[in-house]
Amino acid sequence: MYAVIATGGKQYRVAEGSVVRIEKLEAEAGANVEFDQVLLVGEGDTVQVGTPYLNGGKVVATVQSHGRSDKKTIVKFRRRKHYLRQGTHRQSYTEVKITSIVA
C-alpha cells in the first residue's frame, strides 16, 4: 500500500516502513505525527483519488531525526556589468518513518 501526501508545500509518495526526508516539522524525535492531507491511496490495481484530499485518509509517521542538507552555492552574475553576488544555503529537514496508512 502506498499514498501521496502533501506537506511543506511539496508532495511525497510514501509506503509503510519507508523513511522520508520532508520539510522541517516542529516535533521532537520519537514523536508521532499525522498527515491528513492525503491526495491518493493505492494498493495493487485499486487506486483512490481525492478531490483534492481523501475523506478520512491519514498517514501516521514517527519522527526519527532532524538535520540539515548539504550546502548549496548560490551565484548571481551579470557579465560586463561588475555584478557578482555569492552565497550559500543549507535546507533543514525532518526524517520520518511511515508507520501506517489509513484510507
Share of helix, binned: under 10%
Q: Outline the low-pLDDT stretches.
A: none
**Number of DSSP strand runs:** 10
Rounded to the nearest angstrom, the distance between the terminal CA atoms is: 10 Å
Rg from Cα: 18 Å
Overall structural class, as computed from helix and strand content, comes to mainly beta
The whole-number mean of residue pLDDT values reads: 96
Number of helices: 0
For the record, the count of structural domains works out to 1
The order of strands across the largest sheet is 2-1-5-6
Q: Looking at the structure, what is the overall shape?
A: elongated
Kindly report the oligomeric state of this protein. Answer: single chain
Task: Write down the secondary-structure element order.
Answer: EEEEEEEEEE
Strand residue content: over 45%
Largest sheet: 4 strands, antiparallel
Structural account:
It is elongated, with a radius of gyration of 18 Å. The N and C termini lie close together (10 Å). It is 0% helix and 65% strand. The chain has one domain (2-102). By secondary structure, the chain is an all-beta fold.
